Amino acid sequence: MAEWLFHLCEQIEATSLGVFVRESLWGFPILVAIHIITLVFSVGIVVWLDLRLLGVSMTGVPVSRVYRRLMPLAFVGFAIMVVTGMTLLTGFATSAYKNPYFRVKLIALLAAGINAFVYHTNVERRISLWDRSPLPPAAARMAGLISILAWTTVILAGRMMSYTLYTP
Amino acid sequence: MTSLADFFARVEHSTMAETVRDSTVVTGMLSGLHLIGLTLIVGSSLVSLAAIAGLIVSDQPVAEITRATRRATLFGFIVSLATGLLLVSFRLAMSTASRAFQVKLSLILVAILFHYFVFAPAARGQQSVLPPRLAGAVAFLLWLSVVLAGCAFILFE
Questions:
Q1: Contact: B65, A159; criterion CB under 8 Å
Q2: Average pLDDT, whole number, for chain A?
Q3: CA dist A140 to A67, B7, B64, Å?
Q4: Contact residues, chain B, for A45 at CB < 8 Å
Q5: Among A59, A165, B4, B109, which residue carries the largest CB count within 10 Å?
Q6: What angle separates helix A16-23 from helix A63-91, to the nearest 10 degrees?
Q7: B12 touches B92 (CB < 8 A)
Q8: pLDDT bucket at A2, cuts 50 / 70 / 90
Q9: Percent residues over pLDDT 70 in chain B
Q10: Are the C-beta atoms of B146 and B108 separated by less than 8 Å?
């Protein structure tokens, strides 16, 4: 374990925000509820873009249209999810640092981010060639599959984390 | 009442319930799968609403989309029901006494009835007591409320 990182976590926990998250009566439950609601909302939308990329659903609708119409809603949810997640983290940074499921969750989030970046910078560049195709090319299908797997892992690891966070 | 208490005790002491109770990994994974099921339901109802409102397709019938979202909703419901039953199996008496759990069960019942008797006919273009967009919005909010009640249950149990 990197000692400096653990000390940083201790300092984060000692901030007034960290203390508020841990000790306030309603702060923690309200933050958790918003975090879960926005996760369900955003991932629930992203899955449908992924299914379109896989050629499983909405095959009669151009991929760009599905993206344009659904993803702005998902982005709003993601933004709130990240803010509430990071706020929650300030209250339990050292426990999260030691928790293996938190690391799995971070890796899965990173995988989802890299996958989205690769999709936008490479696969989507040639979208005019396959936008209306019921079955997008292998690279687009792979992006959809990786996204579903990454977000599934994020949810599973997130729930595992909440069940093991206080275990010494 | 005694027979119900006996039934709860029998379920709580069943091998399956004790397996779930004694394993953090099993409980955590079931909880994760439960949330994935709910994610599918909420996402599907939102996409249905977007389709009915003409946000996804404006020049084609929405039947293909709403058929797919209905299947996904059913799949999500089966996953969340199965995992939910296992998750409460070892604390059945406590769960049923919880106000948050009672609210969650009531909302699930209302959401199911609304889905099949109001939203589904409206989405298919059949006669319904509510216009399609309003029915879609209510269905989405009902399922979102189920998730919120679930949050209250896990946070205040």
A1: no
A2: 94
A3: 13, 51, 22
A4: 43, 46-47
A5: A59
A6: 90
A7: yes
A8: confident
A9: 97
A10: yes
> Which token pair is A20?
């508020």
What's the gap in Å between the CA of B1 and the closest CA on chain A?
A: 33
Residues 6+ apart with CB under 8 A from A165: A92, A95, A96, A99, A102
pLDDT value for B1: 58
A73 CB near a chain B CB, below 8 Å?
yes
Contact B116, B70 (CB under 8 A): no
Q: Return the axis-axis angle of helices A27-53 and B24-52, rounded to nearest 10°.
A: 60
CA distance B14 to chain A (A): 22
What is the Cα–Cα distance from A163 to A157, expressed in whole angstroms? 10
Domain residue spans of chain B: 4-156
A41: which chain B residues are within 8 Å (Cβ-Cβ)? 42-43, 46, 144
Contact B28 A36 (CB under 8 A): no
Closest partner residue to B40 (CB to CB) among A41, A44, A70 is A44
Tally the residues of chain A: 168
Measure CB to CB from residue B56 to each of A65, A160, A162 and give the nearest one: A65
Residues of A in contact with B73 (CB under 8 A): none
Query: pLDDT tens digits for B12-43?
Result: 999 999 999 999 999 999 999 999 999 999 99
Placement of tokens 């508020």 in the chain = A20
Cβ of B65 within 8 Å of Cβ of A57? The answer is yes
Tell me how far apart the alpha carbons of residues A47 and A44 are, in angstroms, rounded to a whole number: 6
